Every structure is written in structure tokens, then in C-alpha cells.
Amino acid sequence: xxxxxxxxxxxxxxxxxxxAAIKKQPQxxxxxxxxxxxxxxxxxxxxxxxxQAIAANEFVDIIKQRKINQNDVPTxxxxxxxxxxxxxxxxxxxGQFPKGGIVLRIQIARMMPGAKIPQHVDLSPLLTSSYRxxxxxxxxxxxxxxxxxxxxxxxxxQLYNLNNRVPHWVENRSxxxxxxxxxxxxxxxxNTADILKPNFDLILKKRASKVDNQSNSQTSTQTTxxxxxxxxxxxxxxxxxxxxGGIYLVDLNSGEFEQVIDWNTCDIDFGGRGWDRGLxxxxxxxxxxxxxxxxxxxxxxxxxNIIASYKNPYxxxxxxxxxxxxxxxxxxxxxxxxxxxxxxxxxxxxxxxIRLASNGKIDINQYDPMDHYGPEPANTTHxxxxxxxETGIYTSGRLIxxxxxxxxxxxxxxxxxxxxxxxxxxxxxxxxxxxxxSDCIVFTSTYEYYEMEIPTYxxxxxxxxxxxxxxLARQAFGRxxxxxxxxxxxAGSSPSTISAYDMKSKSIIKSINISMxxxxxxxxxxxxxxxxx
Length: 533
Description:
Neuraminidase; 2 domains; 6-stranded antiparallel sheet; 40% strand
């Protein structure tokens, strides 16, 4: 189970009686229940005595229907010979955790000299929902137990709670056998079918961070010099002949803002919620600003005169875009695609098609966006984000629970994220994103998780609330995200609000509202890079 560290040392226990009892057992006990051991442990280079254990598939079958009971966990032959010595150690281990849980497995695992357990991450719901507790019974300094790249020198008679959701491996480099007592304990709060949901680790991270977030929930009062930002908006549900978006320059330091473009074009499809309305992603190349509408990229000069625009038949319902060297990458939500536009040649020269297959897996293909035989329109992944840094190109979508890394020929799952996110990006040693479904900004890394709430307003202050349809517009719809040095993150939300967060105190430094029209939502958001003339 995920814990906020590689491991936890939970104190010492007396293992002498159990060690003595194990030494008395015949080899025939280690050789017994071979079919069971293959079922539970596979072909690992370990010898195991299973005292109590439930198979991973049986665990899943039960918890889909109801809570697990202790009676669901079978007892095996080793229990008869070793339970008197094992039970006090189990009692001590369980005393470190909430009562009312279920012991899913008790085993004694022996690694012979030279044995190895290759690097892996535990994936079965049984192991992702249970504390994995180790008590070394017989070990030595030449046993290597490495968790997330760090060697842990486990001592005999110590109780360890291990994070099995990060890469770990074991090797016995000594000429003596190593033996551990291993206990898998399902805490009561995890005895639910929720553990089968995607991103269960995030549930655990939220739970672990709840107290910390509450203690840092107050708005920061520190003085910080904030930049000017540029933001685009979409007025969701706007009617024909009405403004349906705009471009704003916002001075976060003074609180002043200016609408430099009122986007009120009528030659668009006004169906749906956002549909073709408004303006979206923003990026900069040389001295120009590139901003996307639903199906067109506009190039503006510093005074926001349009100097060029570019269309492509596979650009539909565009969201975010980013510059990579001399190319512009842009998401085409209506075609499940990321398109690449060559800024020197002024042409679209490559596209990635990222689509959910019928079996639920993600397929990636490349195509030429200038070819008339490209993909049919579809929105299976709702790609709404593309990000680039020195490590590569990344993308994510509202309908896929993954942050993905793209190459010319493959897609790699970097990590799991909630469904419904926007603006996922690498940040420090983790990732940062708008958890739009939960109305918060989230930072998560291997051992950290914290979230910051998006501002809301009193109902009587909001205008254009007549729709009551949250698909069209709602408060705290988070979209638009950019970062600064010194732990400052800037995020957008609805009704059009831009907020600066201090990532150290996990609090808002400043929040500026542009419009109280509930339909008016920030979309693109970037730090304005051009100094005043």
C-alpha cells in the first residue's frame, strides 16, 4: 500500500521464540502446499510458509460484492506448528494500526543464498490496499533490500511498514538464508470496493494529506512580487451575436486588468457547452503571441493585431498548445490528436492520434495532417493538454486517467491522474494539475500530495445563473495553469478568476476576478513575457 515514505520503522519485537520454532521445522513443511505457493507467490526465488492467505483473485471477487471477513481467509498447515510463536508478533504489528481490519496473509518467506527478487511494483488490489509489514527474523548485512533506489538495511526483530507502490527489489548476496515474517493487513477504511477504482493511490494520498491541508488553508499574507499574465476565456452557453470569449492582460501585482480582445465572431457552431466558442491555448514565439480558437491558430503582434492565422481539417475543439523549438504543438480534442505546426515552414507537418480502443487500452498512431486520408472525427480521450520540457512531450485528456509521454512512435504512461483533469504538467519532482472535478489545484509526487481549493463566491454575487446546468457553467471550474520560480503557481477558474498560490504555505496569495458571469471561464493562461515599450 502507498504510504508517504519508502518505509516506516514501527519498533522492535522479540523474535527469538519464532526463530527457534522455525529451525525445528522439517524441510517437508517448507515443501508442503506447493500448488498454493505457486498460486500466491508465483515463481519467485523464495521459499514460503503460508500460515493464512487469500488468493488475489478470490479477494477481488469477494470485495466486489461485500466486505471481506476474517473467516474468508483460509488457514494452512504451517499455522498448526507456528501460530503460538507468530500470534504475539501479529498482535504487536496490528496494534500500530486502526482496529477492525482483516489480516489477509501471514507468511514466512525464506531467501536462499544468491536468490533475487527482481525490481517490481505490487499491482494487485490485495497488495495496493493493505499494509505490507515485514519483521526480519534472520538476516545479515549482505542482504540488499532496495526501495525506490535507496537501500534499506533491515534489522532483525524490527517491524517495518513498506511502500510496495514504488519500485523495489531484493537480493541475498550472502552465503546464508534470509527469513522474514510478512503480514498483509487490510485496514477497515479500505474494506470496500472503492479499492478497485483507478487511482486508488490518490485516495490514499488525499487521506494522508487531509490534516496538513487543513492546517494550511488560510490565505497567505506574505508580500510577493507577482507578474502580469495573459488569459483567454470561453463564455460557455453564450448565444449568437453575443461575446463568447476574450483576451485579457492582468497585472497580478496591482490587480488591474484590460480586455485587449473581445471575441464575438458569429461564424461558429454555437451548439453544446463550450463548443466553438471563445479562445483557448496561448504560447509565444519570437515576439509574437499565438492563440487558438476552436479550429484556427491566430498569430498576434504585441499590440494584438492579427498578422496571420492557420487552419487544418484535423484541428477541431482545440485546447492547450505549447512551443517546442520551432514547432507549435496543439491538442485537437475533436480528433483525439496532437498536431504539430512548423513555425518556420508555416505548415502542419505531423500528428499523433491517441484514441481509446474497444478493449479500453490506449492506441497511438501517427498521420500526416496534410493528408486527406487521416482519422475520422471522434472524442474518445478528450485530449485537452499538451506539455513540453527538456524531458519530452506529454499529453493528457479528461477521459483518460493517465499522464502520457509521447515519442514519434509510442506512448508511455508516466503516472495515473484523476479523470476530468486539465493542464497536467511536470513540476519539481512530481506533477501539477487542475483537478477540475474536485475544484482544486493538486501537486503530487512519489511521497507527497497536497491540494489547494479554487475560490468561490456568494451566490447573490454571481450573474447569468438562469441556466442551472453545470455542464454549461459552474463555479470553481478550474482550467488554465502556469508556474513561476519561488514556488508560485497561477491558476484560472470560473467565473473568470485568476489566483496566485504559494506552494510552500499551500495558500492563495492573491485572487483577481475579471467577470462575475458564471458562464465566463478562463481557458488559456500564461505569464506575459513582453516588457512594456
